[in-house]
Amino acid sequence: MTILVGYLPTPEGEAAVDAGLREGRLRGERVIIVNSPRRGAPVDERKISDAAGTELLRRAREAGVDAELRQPLHDDDLPGTFEELIRECGGTLIVIGLRHRSLVGKFILGSEAQRILMEASVPVLSVKAPAVRAEL
Amino acid sequence: MDISPILDGFGVVLEPANLLYCLIGVIIGMLIGVLPGLGPGATIAILLPITYGIGPVSAIIMLAGIFYGAQYGGTITSVLLRLPGEASSVVTVFDGFALAKQGRAGTALGIAAIGSFVGGTVSILALTLVAPVVAGFALDFGPPEYAALGILGVLLISSVGNGNRLKAIIAACVGLLLATVGRDTFTGAERFTFGSLNLAEGIDFIPIAMGLFGLSEILYNLEERHNQVHSPAKVGNVWPSRKDLGQAKGAIGRGSLIGFVLGVLPGGGAVLSSLAAYALEKRRAKQPERFGRGAVEGVAAPETANNAAATSSFIPLLTLGIPANATMALIFGALLIQGIQPGPQLVTEHPDVFWGVINSMYIGNILLLIMSIPMVGVFVRILRVRPAILAPITVLITLLGAYTVNNSAYDIYLVIVFGVLGYLMKKFGFEPGPLVLAFVLGSMIENSSRQSLLIFGGDPAGFLTRPISGTVLALVVIVAAWPLIRKALRRKTPDRVEEKIT
Amino acid sequence: MSPPDPTRPDPTRPEPDPPGAPPLDDADVLQAEADRLQAELEEARPPHAGPYAQLGAAVVALAAGVFGVVVSSTLGLGRLTQPGPGLWPFAISVIIIVLSATLAFTGRGLQDTERFSRSSLLTVVGLVTLVGLASLLPVIGFEIPSLLLMFVWLRWLGRESWRSSIVISVGAVAAFYVLFVLLLQIPLPRLI
């Protein structure tokens, strides 16, 4: 069984990976780190470089967790991308980072995290970025 | 040589409005050079209606800025993403991307920008000296010479461009045929109008260019699958070190020369010259194996050459009235719209246009150097914009722009019709470039051949007995038969060919 | 890519350098590298369409040539001393016929066509919106048709979310209004 961790190169994403790896060790499950860029533009700042990916996997190894990095493209349906991965890998849990956003910001930009919370077919663990990151 | 018209040209360029249009042009050029999808040809086509609003000099300064600005912009994606924005930046990918992988993307971009600047500037200087001489030489040309030159131009563009040669020539002939629609200037007879009042005036150049170059490209790109997303690349320090500059110095010098010479040839001057410059550097290098693994010269040479070629491709247009590539055909059309006939008389009859455009390129290159060294980060950010958002905006600019030309929806329909034609042509492997070029030159070729026939009293042999038109027509035959000649040469010297491959 | 066949021209390869260009020894090697890159870029495009599409294209070109010959001969060819209005189009049409007949026979193996795929439907939808804009523009002004076109392109052709489609299309049309109508004062047909 597998834990899916939504990862973006932000403090929230780091917090999600931390929580996901802890959860993986606790449950003894495999972790898939999902770094999904938006399809279309030649460059997406959400996509992490190969070096950053290797670094994430190194962190997982140190934590004693069997981890894998996936970078599927998504259109305007990130929850769907997660659902596909859940079906494919037998996902049991999604871990995502939440970020505070004002009401207006949420209305204009929408919130992918919120949609995952609402639409996911498995339990979702949502974490916040620590105010001051102690570890890492 | 009388330099006062040249100085007056600087006066024209330094007018604030023209400086502004130059700046707008090079910024748009950089942007579309960076963005995959729309090329400089499509962009210039879409912006053609603007030429009605602003004067001819300003318009051409801006359109030219888009053209050479795109050469700078295309480098950025070649180096950072291994994605050549322009065909002439393809070879830059080999060493540029290798440098970027070593964390030296900034060095590659900096060297490319300096090379482009030097190449462009050297080429403008040479253009300043050569163009009036060529124009003076061509002043004696009569209709037979123009007919022959026009045919040679169309044939060369069809032969040197990408894609199948037969298809390109067919497309060119269709362009010639489209140019005949409307009232015949000699007899007043209506040709291919089928009783339509709209067609009796002939087909305007603007909707054809906007449709075949602009709209068709947008429609064609709708089918693109975007399955590659890159993570943001770090550009780092863009100022090349003294050592890098020293290494690239020779390549930049030779690249300028190759670019200038090959750019004058009609056809893919910029593409050809970037290939030639790269090949030359690789052959001259003490350690050719460095090429492809991040040699600074491998970036400097092609980038210098393609800019020099882009600049010198203005020579045939400004002096003979023969556009050297599809983009020049658009600028040719833009000048015609303003009632200015590009050709040998241009330098004497419209010195403000001639020198204004040439001198604006000095300014444009300086602006581009400023933008591509300290401001490169700004342009790299553009890559995060999704083409799906830009496409409808471009479509709207195209259609509304087409409407404003004559304030009629007929022009919008015309753009759509030619957009579909261009889309289908691309799907079936026909390049729209030769068609547009042939359309632009069509009435010139027809009128001058008919005038020549009148001069010769109906004897076509007259074309061959005049020295210049005879030589040009001989060139036409050589170009037409070139694939056969080449094959024959290769068969005769099989040893040499094998030697080349191993 | 298939191995190069010496009997037919390779469509992806530019024609040989024009006479007068300096001989390039490494050009062939370099061209091969450039071709490889090109092929990689073309992965984003649909596959090639095969011999019938080639034949079809040649036949369409041939038909255009025949049409040109028929129409221009009714215009009157005249004589070389006194060329009629139809002579020049006639000559071009004959060339078109000859070349496209050659293409029909020799070009069947070319690979430069593209298959129509499901995504070609996107182009058709796009086209319908263009015709819609052209027909509505003179009637109800540019604002509403532009807004609709933007929205359809963003939401269905570009697969943007509902929210960003609405926001971007409204924003873009407002920007067009400010730029074209208020600043440049271009006489576009308007709603009010």
UniProtKB/TrEMBL annotation, chain A:
Native source organism of the sequence: Nonomuraea fuscirosea
Family statement drawn from the similarity comment of this UniProt entry: Belongs to the universal stress protein A family.
InterPro entries membership: Rossmann-like_a/b/a_fold (IPR014729), Universal_stress_UspA (IPR006015), UspA (IPR006016)
Coiled coil (residue ranges): none
Superkingdom per UniProt: Bacteria
CDD domains according to UniProt: USP-like
Domain UspA span(s) in chain numbering: 2-128
Gene3D superfamilies per the UniProt record, alphabetical: HUPs
Protein name: Nucleotide-binding universal stress UspA family protein
UniProtKB/TrEMBL annotation, chain B:
PANTHER family (UniProt xref): TRICARBOXYLIC TRANSPORT PROTEIN
Residues that span the membrane, as ranges: 18-38, 45-68, 112-139, 145-161, 168-186, 257-280, 317-340, 360-380, 412-428, 468-485
A Pfam entry, by short name: TctA
InterPro entries according to UniProt: DUF112_TM
Protein name: Putative tricarboxylic transport membrane protein
Origin superkingdom: Bacteria
Domain DUF112: 19-437
UniProt KW keywords: Membrane, Transmembrane, Transmembrane helix
TrEMBL record, chain C:
Domain DUF1468: 56-189
Keywords: Membrane, Transmembrane, Transmembrane helix
InterPro entries, alphabetized: DUF1468 (IPR009936)
Annotated protein name in UniProt: Tripartite tricarboxylate transporter TctB family protein
Location of the region described as Disordered in the Swiss-Prot/TrEMBL record: 1-26
Pfam families assigned: TctB (PF07331)
Transmembrane segments: 55-75, 87-107, 119-142, 162-184
Presence of keyword Membrane: yes
Keyword Transmembrane among record annotations: yes
Residue ranges, compositional bias (Basic and acidic residues): 7-16
